[in-house]
């Protein structure tokens, strides 16, 4: 049976330079994968490529989502098909409220999933949903009427990303350093948010530098990306080892 | 969060184009259609058809002579392709004006139905005037307003029914010699709105006028005069559309507004002409002591718009605002802005302009801020922001500032931004198409102005922008 997400011998170029140099990785719903690796090793490049960022050119290999190549699909098509990326550095959109943005995005998705029977989400239903998810992430109601990411603190931005995930309910979610910039409580709150979404219908790929978030969101697999390749793979114990020993031993092994 | 949630981005709710929604045309079963061309005979004919007093007939002829004398402006947009002799100057669509929609000829009523006017009238307007070609074919105002002494009628009727009031103010704020197109309008004007609000009367819901061109090569020259007496308030809204023809039409209006002591007027335009219309409009207000004038001017559509609503702050403490939104797509040029003239102490003004250019379209902000000697303690703030959607589009800023008083506070800010790829990727990665994402960024860009509008018009503006973002305008 096809995997939910299969990255096959992926090579990616940015600005004419090869950054990802042959990555293989499969993720199935219900699993949590962690990707770790030194700064500049290509983690965000991998994440952006999975969602189809136009700057990132796949020169070799393939990305299969539910058995189908997504290389020809645009970011919005991938999103509506159930892929999601929580950004390391989310962008702001002035004049567009969080609520308005999410309702529009949710309706765009419903248009695809409901096919010919599309009905925009009823406002009371949407409002209730927003309230619940915001409460879960300890965000005040007034957050809904703020302009998207404009003037958000680092921590608010990360929570807003998980709020978006909670509303859009993807099947494969890639979280790019969702824990960085969060204080201790922030990591816990965001992790609880992610955990509440976990289940048999969601596969997670979590990119992080720190063991801490992995105490909350337990990975089934840990992959270490070094210079565009997966250098080591293992279970949760690998993350602990990296936390204690750093990347030096991995770098040595890969030379 | 209640309120904001309700104005959603209504993408793709209809996949219709300008052509389908506004660009259709009706068969011509007209009561009268003049010959093409501009000359003293046509001016005479218009005045005769309207059975006007001599002073108006003479005013028209004088104005035509001024028009002939004035050279074509060589600034702003390209006006040289307008052939004044290839235009119909006067078309009477209906024999008489309707007071209810059943009295309006079926084709025409049908058009306004499609444009949603009768529905809007029911829901949130105090009165409506509907102009079709040269004349107002439907006019109605709530009885309660009439009882309070509010006059809201078409300008032709006002000349007959309120001759003294009319003559006192007509052409005093914008004389024919003001500019070539004001002279043209003064010579061949027809239709438009006449509003008088008596002292202290507050007109709660907006009055709306809708201008529709149907004929090819049509010239529409409505003339609007609004007098807001002391301490009174009115919000007037105008909308306009036309069929998409391959040859050009001309719309050249003159709007004169007087706001007396402590009064307030707001004039909102949501212009949505098809992209074959030259839109050359002169709009000016004189604001007396402690009066407030607000121009909200949204310009979408048209081939070329040249329009700079202006406010003469002639009374102490008068306040003026111009909020201008312009959007130019392929083949379009929006040369818009605003003017504030401080001619009295402690007057304040604010001009905020937001322009969007896409698909090679061009927007220009052109503004004037003038402070006369003696207008001490005056304050003005000018802010123009341009958003470019692609590399082929263009935006320029022409801010003229002439300050002849030392004791003033003047602020001027301008910015140009491009929609960034990263921002687009962020939004598309949430399931919005490129167009929807761009439209969202554009709507966010104009949000500071949109939120000034009553909800119905904010929604309308949002809808029109999305329509234009779909790349489907004429
Ligand atoms: N759009 C881009 N243009 C130019 N170079 C890029 C671009 N995106 C990534 N790169 C380069 O690719 C390499 C990998 O960057 P990437 O952001 O994927 O690393 P990362 O593993 O996510 O690092 P970090 O842990 O610091 O977030 C870096 O050398 C970076 O400069
Ligand atoms: Mg990164």
Taking the sheet with the most strands of chain B, its summary is: 12 strands, mixed
What is the end-to-end distance of chain A? 36 Å
Give the helix tally of chain A: 9
CATH class of the domain at 5-95 and 170-253 in chain A: Alpha Beta
Strand order of the largest sheet of chain A: 6-7-8-3-9-10
What is the fourth-level CATH superfamily of the domain at 5-95 and 170-253 in chain A?
Answer: P-loop containing nucleotide triphosphate hydrolases
Overall geometry of chain B comes to globular
Average of the residue pLDDT scores of chain B = 93
Helix content of chain B: 25-40%
How large is the count of helical segments of chain B?
A: 13
Would you count the extended β strands of chain A for me? 10
The radius of gyration computed from the alpha-carbon positions of chain A, rounded to a whole number of angstroms, is: 18 Å
Mean pLDDT of chain A, to the nearest integer, reads 94
Number of domains of chain B: 2
**Strand-residue proportion of chain B:** 35-45%
One letter per element, helices H and strands E, the order of chain A comes to EEEHEEHEHHHEHEHEEHH
Largest interface: A-B, 45 and 34 residues
Explain how this protein is built.
The complex is a heterodimer of chains A (255) and B (474). Chain A has 255 residues and is of the alpha/beta class. Chain A has 9 helices and 10 strands. Chain A has a domain at 5-95 and 170-253: Rossmann fold, CATH 3.40.50. Helix content of chain A is 38%, strand content 25%. Chain A has a 6-stranded mixed beta sheet with strand order 6-7-8-3-9-10, sandwiched between helices. A 4-stranded antiparallel beta sheet of chain A has the order 2-1-4-5. In chain A, a hairpin with a 2-residue loop joins strand 9 and strand 10 (229-234). The mean pLDDT of chain A is 94. Chain B is of the alpha/beta class and 474 residues long. Chain B folds into 2 domains: 1-26 and 434-474, no CATH class; 27-433, no CATH class. Chain B has helices at residues 2-6, 18-21, 40-49, 54-69, 106-114, 117-124, 143-147, 155-161, 163-169, 180-188, 421-428, 434-450, 455-469; strands at 32-33, 91-92, 127-132, 135-141, 151-154, 193-197, 207-212, 219-220, 223-228, 233-241, 249-251, 254-259, 264-273, 277-287, 292-301, 304-307, 310-313, 319-328, 333-342, 348-357, 362-371, 378-388, 394-403, 408-418. In chain B, strand 3 (127-132) and strand 4 form a beta hairpin. In chain B, helix 3 (40-49) packs antiparallel against helix 4 and helix 8 (155-161) packs across helix 9. The radius of gyration of chain B is 21 Å and the shape is globular. The A-B interface holds A 48, 51-55, 74-76, 78-80, 84-85, 87, 90-91, 93-97, 99-101, 103-105, 107-109, 111-112, 120, 123, 126-127, 130, 141-142, 144-145, 147, 164, 168 and B 1-2, 4-9, 11-12, 420-423, 425-434, 436-437, 440-441, 443-448. Magnesium ion is lined by residues 43-44, 88, 176-177 of chain A.
């Amino acid at each position: 049976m096809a995997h939910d997400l299969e990255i096959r011998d992926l090579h990616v170029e940015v600005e004419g330079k090869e950054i990802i140099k042959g990555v293989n990785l499969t993720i199935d719903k219900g699993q949590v994968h962690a990707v770790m690796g030194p700064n500049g090793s290509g983690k965000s490049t991998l994440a952006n490529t999975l969602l189809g960022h136009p700057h990132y050119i796949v020169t070799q290999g393939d990305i299969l989502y539910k058995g189908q190549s997504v290389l020809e699909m645009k970011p919005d098509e991938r999103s509506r098909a159930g892929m999601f990326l929580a950004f390391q550095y989310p962008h702001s959109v002035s004049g567009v409220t969080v609520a308005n943005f999410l309702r529009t995005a949710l309706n765009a998705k419903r248009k695809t999933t409901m096919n010919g029977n599309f009905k925009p989400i009823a406002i009371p239903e949407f409002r209730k949903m927003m309230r619940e998810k915001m409460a879960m992430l300890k965000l005040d109601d007034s957050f809904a009427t703020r302009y998207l990411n404009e003037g958000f603190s680092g921590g608010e931005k990360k929570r807003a990303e998980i709020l978006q995930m909670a509303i859009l309910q993807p099947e494969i979610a890639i979280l790019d350093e969702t824990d960085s910039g969060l204080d201790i409580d922030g990591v816990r709150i965001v992790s609880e948010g992610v955990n509440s979404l976990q289940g048999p219908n969601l596969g997670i790929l979590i990119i992080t530098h720190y063991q801490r978030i992995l105490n909350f969101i337990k990975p089934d697999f840990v992959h270490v990306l070094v210079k565009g390749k997966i250098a080591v793979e293992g279970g949760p114990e690998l993350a602990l080892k990296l936390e204690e020993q750093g990347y030096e031993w991995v770098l040595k092994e890969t030379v | 969060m209640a309120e904001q949630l309700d104005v959603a981005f209504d993408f793709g709710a209809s996949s219709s184009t300008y052509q389908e929604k506004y660009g259709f045309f009706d068969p011509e079963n007209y009561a009268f259609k003049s010959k093409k061309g501009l000359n003293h005979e046509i001016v005479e004919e218009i005045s005769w058809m309207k059975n006007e007093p001599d002073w108006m007939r003479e005013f028209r002829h004088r104005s035509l002579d001024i028009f002939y004398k004035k050279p074509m402006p060589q600034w702003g947009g390209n006006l040289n392709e307008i052939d004044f002799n290839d235009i119909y100057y006067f078309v009477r669509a209906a024999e008489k004006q309707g007071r209810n929609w059943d009295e309006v000829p079926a084709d025409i009523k049908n058009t306004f139905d499609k444009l949603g006017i009768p529905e809007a009238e029911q829901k949130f307007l105090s009165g409506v005037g509907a102009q079709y070609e040269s004349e107002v074919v439907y006019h109605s105002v709530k009885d309660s307003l009439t009882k309070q002494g509010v006059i809201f009628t078409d300008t032709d009727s006002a000349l007959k029914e309120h001759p003294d009031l009319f003559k006192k103010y007509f052409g005093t704020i914008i004389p024919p010699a003001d500019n070539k197109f004001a002279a043209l309008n003064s010579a061949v004007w027809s239709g438009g709105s006449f509003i008088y609000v008596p002292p202290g009367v507050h007109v709660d819901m907006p009055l709306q006028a809708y201008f529709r061109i149907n004929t090819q090569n049509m010239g529409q020259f409505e003339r609007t005069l609004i007098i807001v007496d002391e301490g009174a308030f009115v919000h007037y809204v105008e909308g306009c559309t036309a069929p998409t023809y391959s040859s050009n039409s001309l719309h050249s209006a003159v709007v004169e507004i007087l706001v007396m002591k402590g009064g307030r007027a707001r004039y909102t335009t949501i212009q949505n002409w098809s992209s074959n219309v030259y839109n050359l409009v002169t709009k000016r207000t004189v604001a007396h002591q402690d009066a407030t004038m607000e121009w909200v001017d949204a310009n979408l559509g048209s081939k070329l718009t040249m329009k700079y609503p202006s406010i003469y702050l002639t009374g102490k403490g008068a306040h003026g605002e111009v909020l201008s939104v312009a959007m130019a797509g392929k083949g379009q040029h929006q040369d818009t802005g605003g003017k504030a003239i401080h001619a009295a102490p402690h007057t304040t003004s604010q001009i905020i302009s937001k322009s969007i250019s896409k698909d090679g379209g061009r927007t220009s902000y052109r503004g004037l801020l003038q402070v006369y000697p003696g207008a001490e303690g005056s304050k003005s703030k000018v802010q123009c922001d341009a958003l470019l959607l692609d590399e082929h589009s263009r935006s320029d800023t022409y801010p003229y500032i002439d300050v002849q008083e030392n004791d003033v506070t003047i602020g001027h800010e301008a910015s140009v931004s491009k929609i960034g790829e990263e921002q687009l990727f962020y939004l598309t990665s949430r399931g919005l198409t490129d167009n929807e994402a761009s439209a969202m960024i554009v709507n966010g860009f104009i949000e500071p102005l949109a939120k000034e509008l009553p909800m119905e018009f904010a929604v309308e503006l949002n809808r029109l922008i999305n329509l234009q973002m779909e790349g489907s305008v004429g």
